[in-house]
Amino acid sequence: MVFVRQIIVSDASSFLSRAVCIATRYSAVRRQFGSKNGGPEIQVIDYKTQQSRLFPLIASAYAFRFVGEWLKWLYTDVTQRLQASDFSTLPEAHACTAGLKSLTTTATADGIEECRKLCGGHGYLCSSGLPELFAVYVPNCTYEGDNTVLLLQVAKFLMKTVSQLPSEKKQVGTTTTYFGHLEHHMKFQSDVQKAEDWLKPSAILGVFEARSVRMSVTCANNLRKFSNQEEGFSELSADLVEAAIAHCQVIIVSKFIKKLEQEIPGYGVKQQLEVLCFIYALFLLHKHQGDFLATKCITPKQAHLANEQLRYLYAKVRPNAVSLVDSFNHTDHLLGSILGRYDGNVYQKLYEEAWKDPLNDSVIIDGYHDYIRPLLKRQLQIARL
Fold first, then answer.
1. Options 92, 113, 114, 144, the catalytic residue
2. Tens digit of each residue's pLDDT (9 = 90 or more) over 262-321
3. CB 8 within 8 A of CB 101
4. Which of 101, 110, 190, 344 is the 20 to 30 Å CA partner of 361?
5. Which of 24, 13, 12, 22 is nearest to 54 (CA)?
6. For this structure, is 144 an active site residue?
7. Residue 168 burial (10 A CB sphere; 0-12, 13-18, 19+)
């Protein structure tokens, strides 16, 4: 199961990248509204509403790829340890693969559907490639473990981690190391004062780790109020799931940042990846803004500054959006999409695809003379009477 789940995490990036490739290319080709003085209409990708829905998905595809690479390393490391009869890292490997499988597959399934919506009515066509992509991928949310159940398993791992915090016992594993700084995270308050401060990796990791620790500690404290722990776990399951999600998001964000600390070849590539990293993190902060505010990791003003910075980052991605999805190197054959063609010749191919419909094989459709014409003829006779 651990092996299969780490494969599923890597596949999440592959499937999501295919969907965002189609949606991004089509958004660059499609023009609608806003024409001035009889000029061309505005490219759909230039609308801020389109960018705010599409660009975080591009960032997610990259984030899942990098965390998938790390998870592959973790599985290899655990396997080698098991061969040496060292089982110490197995619980962490189980929790990581379970949680990341849940998080990435849910986000990917939702992302593919969002990409279909981003393509408008054409996204619903079979020839867009998106309906089939969604149908093929969505079972990932249930096989190898239902996603909600998997998050509850992560929550159990977190509750055990929190229960061991007062002890002097050395923690085994890397993903929960930040729990060891309990006092710091419980007192943490973001020092962000302007929008640009959110471009500091330490500022991002600080709020994500503090939120995760506080949510887990709160759940652990509430669990202690129950005499029956199983009953308490069942009663607080919704909160525990949210705590597990917060921890898994820390892993993905931290691995993205860790990737950027490495040497990355190509002029300007690292800078673009940094922009995507901050888009991914700040998008999550915006999406889960309630958690960050409720745990008092940030103030309402800092949340506003994060949204302001996020809008600025979208503008930084726009000139390179098509190149960023082209870099996934998906061929037209693999995408199987009229909308996501590399050459951008969408409308001519849509017209040609429409003629392939069996209804267009003849001027008069099959069944007309047998069913429709007699019916029309009978109605005509009735009308004359």
1. 144
2. 989 888 899 999 999 999 999 999 999 999 999 999 999 999 999 999 999 999 999 999
3. yes
4. 344
5. 24
6. yes
7. exposed
